[in-house]
Amino acid sequence: MRMKEKVVLITGATGEIGTEMTRRFLTEGASVFITGRSAEKLADMVQSMGVGARLKTCLVDALDESAVSFSVERCVAEFGGIDAIIANAGTEGKVQPLEKYSVEEFNETLLVNVTGVWLYLKHGLPPMRARGSGSFVAISSGAGMVGFPGLCPYAASKHAVNGLVRTACLENAGFGIRVNALAPGPTDTRMMESVGLQANSSDPTAFKSAVISTIPMQRYGKVEEIANLAVFLASEDSSFCNGGVYMADGGFTAA
Prior knowledge:
Elements (H helix, E strand, L loop, with lengths): L6 E4 L5 H12 L3 E6 L2 H11 L5 E5 L5 H15 L4 E4 L15 H29 L2 E6 L12 H21 L4 E8 L5 H10 L4 H9 L10 H12 L10 E4 L7
Helix pairs in contact: 1-8, 3-4, 4-5, 6-7
């Protein structure tokens, strides 16, 4: 078990990718502290995972700095420290041409996807510095490496996440902390279903077919494949990986 006796904090844990990552880290022996905006979904996860005291929850809006700070303090109090943080909370926003967004719509996506990650860097790195080790994994996207028509603020936000990661790497490597980005390509989740519906409400499958045609492996990714990479980046298996953006996209950004 690669994460035995390690403590992992996962934000935005109640979505499909977050849930699968939680399951995988528990399977790998970690104690896991999960956050989300739905108390009901968090409680359901605790019940379904069935691991007792190794899984704790905290209701958090990732844009509420006091709630973010409190969740980090709670994790340290419950488990004695933090070995890895997976900053997974995010939103795709609306799908439309860039000129159609209001300032409020544009900023909302950037706030959730960028400021939310920054707040967990701000409050999550100090406990790691105190221990002299740690791994921070920000969930980016293939859209953070290329353009993505119809998702202007989302693509901009994920490019920004990659910049945050590289800067945080340079500022924290001397403290024994690694900071990396995990960038999923199109993945079989409700989020991608939502994007497809917004892109073509009369035939959302047409969007999926069009996207798959641009992926060399000719399919969407699976949540299990994203979770596998998250465990790798959080564990000592990636001990010399720092400041990188690691793709799980079937070749989407290479095409």
